[in-house]
Amino acid sequence: MRFHGVNLNLLVVMNALLDEGSVSSAALRLNLSQPAVSNALAQLRDHYGDKLFVSVGGRMLPTELTQRLAEPIRDILRQSQVVIQERSAFDPATAVRRFFVAVSDYEGSAFMPMVTRHLAQVAPGIAVSLRLTILPAQLSFPQVTNLLEHRQNDFVVLPESLASPNHPRQWLYDERYVVIAWDGNPRIGPELSLDQYLALSHVVAEFADSRSQGFEGDALASLGHARNVGTAVEQFTLIPEYVVGTEQIATVHAGLARLFVTRFPLRIFPVPVELPPLPIIVQWNRVRELDPGVRWFAGQLQEVARSRPGD
């Protein structure tokens, strides 16, 4: 198809070259021959009067013009995808579709299993592919935007403080914190005091080469408290492995604690200092705002969130 004298299929090739950084990889992704991709690149260079890509160290890097064109081209292709997939109605009972959801190991363990069980009842043709993000404490606005715009995720579930300002969001639930301890810990009685909490060794989730801790660590620091860190791990779901059989304790999301006590010999205590709740939201790409399937799925996430057990 040509538009203003330009074959729009060339934009698909240019987007693949931007993502892949080589003619051979772009050809493989597009199921085209390398000569076909090279020919398309030659046509693009002729149209724009620019090299568009230069070879550096075996990889094709975009020129300044290509960098300016990258986001508008991706927007065009995303909008085209929405137009092609648009339907007058979305019937979840009969729809056959897969949604890609980026989550941390926390949401992937404590929230998304509830979602998939719900979908099995109301929309058996809907499949979910979970894509683990880098850990929440390492995320930034540009990285969240990248998850939605360049990695072709339909949704990302994350703490509200990390949300991208460029895309719609919807509140799901407020997560709170609790303390877990091995049920044979000899240093804890029926209750956990603040003095005990600060004196005991803690298992913590710590990220980015020990430079970043979880949100609960930042909240404690803002209140003038510091945990006595005994063990640090890079996955929330590893924490109970290092609590059981020891005198160590851990401050974790209440949703995870409910899951942990069904699998490990643990007790749950309130945190002996008031920590602010952690709002959890879902975001989706702004170009899919009119997609009835996307709107429906976001609504299902919120419905499941409302059914979560209370803290």
Task: Write structural notes for this entry.
With 311 residues, the protein is α+β, with helices and mostly antiparallel strands. The chain has three domains: 2-85, Winged helix-like DNA-binding domain superfamily/Winged helix DNA-binding domain (Arc Repressor Mutant, subunit A), CATH 1.10.10.10; 97-175 and 278-306, Periplasmic binding protein-like II (D-Maltodextrin-Binding Protein, domain 2), CATH 3.40.190; 177-270, D-Maltodextrin-Binding Protein, domain 2, CATH 3.40.190.10. It is 38% helix and 24% strand. The protein is built from eleven helices and 15 strands. It has helices at 9-20, 23-30, 34-48, 64-85, 105-110, 112-122, 141-149, 194-199, 215-222, 254-260, 292-306; strands at 2-3, 6-7, 53-56, 59-62, 97-103, 126-132, 155-159, 169-175, 177-182, 201-207, 212-213, 228-233, 249-253, 266-270, 278-284. The strands form five sheets. The chain has a five-stranded mixed β-sheet with strand order 6-5-7-15-8, sandwiched between helices. Strands 13-9-14 form a three-stranded antiparallel β-sheet. α1 crosses α2 and α1 crosses α4. It is elongated. The N and C termini lie far apart (56 Å). The mean pLDDT is 86.
List the helices and strands and how they pair.
Layout: E1 2-3, E2 6-7, H1 9-20, H2 23-30, H3 34-48, E3 53-56, E4 59-62, H4 64-85, E5 97-103, H5 105-110, H6 112-122, E6 126-132, H7 141-149, E7 155-159, E8 169-175, E9 177-182, H8 194-199, E10 201-207, E11 212-213, H9 215-222, E12 228-233, E13 249-253, H10 254-260, E14 266-270, E15 278-284, H11 292-306
Parallel strand pairs: 5-6, 5-7, 10-12
Antiparallel strand pairs: 1-2, 3-4, 7-15, 8-15, 9-13, 9-14, 10-11
